[in-house]
Amino acid sequence: MKIIHCSDLHLDADLRTKYDAASAAERRAELLDTFRRLCRYAREEAVSAVLICGDLFDTASPSSSAVRTVEDLIIANSDLLFFYLRGNHDERPALFRTRRGPENLCLFGDDWTTWELSEDRDQGRRICITGREPSNAVLTSPELDPSCINIVMLHGQVREGYTAPDPESVPLSALRGCGIDYLALGHLHHYRSFALDERGTAAYCGTLEGRGFDECGNCGFILLEIDEAQSHITPRFIPFASRRIYSVECPVTGCASDTEVYERISRVLSASPASDADLVRLALTGELEYGCSPDPALIQREWEGRYHYFEYRNYARPVVHSEDFLCDATLKGEFVRAVSAADGLDDAERTMILRCGLRALSGESLF
User: pTM (2 decimals)?
Assistant: First the structure.
């Protein structure tokens, strides 16, 4: 048997802090299309069930069109079981408020709920899906039949030991030693797998499709292949996003001019794996000499057309070598000597004053 473990789709996210209105709408449509592709993949690969471990939607009140699209996909894939556990974003039930829920949609509540996958069990053990949605109550251990293959669904940040009741925390001490074979987790947006105890494995599948630069790298889902005769689960991460997100660092230490900075940017971006379908953030790092002042608008214009989305950040630390001016019998030299001798300035403040003053004395823009 095959089961998909996915989470944190954040459908119908606003996205207008990053995109203009038209591009945000396009990207929202792509996120929905990724869920559509997931359903098609499940059909083509003979998957039996899809586990959605929270944050299917980005808000408690998603648009009616987004909700309707997801409902239609669940109804259209009647041979596929969907197990939907709400997260901290989709905190209110959104699906099937206005029409009857289909039989292939299995939901959970504030208390532990167990569903059994109903197929021929002559060759192996029963497979049970157990879950509990985030709540303010203390997370207790689920009561599981150890003779079953037990998959448990939860949404939250795993913690060692018990803490005060927190709907966004999952205390691992409540879950160890109670017969879990696979703990399907949602909430973190990057793939992570670890041993739960001697019997079970736990994993975050991450987000299905990245939206921001805190979600770089491969995004996708986990495919569980279950050998019922051997009572064994093999999890495998499947990259699935339509677009990837890259944060590309460009160290500029040693560049003596803007031209050298631009050439280094070009080399770094050309060497990155990002394609024209991807989202890219370029970040200058290292030390930026006082004679260098790369133009943000020029960089944006030069490279934004090469990617689906491009943004520029300058995190390089400005440096001024005051010793080069200390013996200079010019106004620049006098300025550097005065600033170098001034009290009450830390290194960052002194460097910024020197940099701005020297550029001003050269008739250049301050930054």
Answer: 0.84
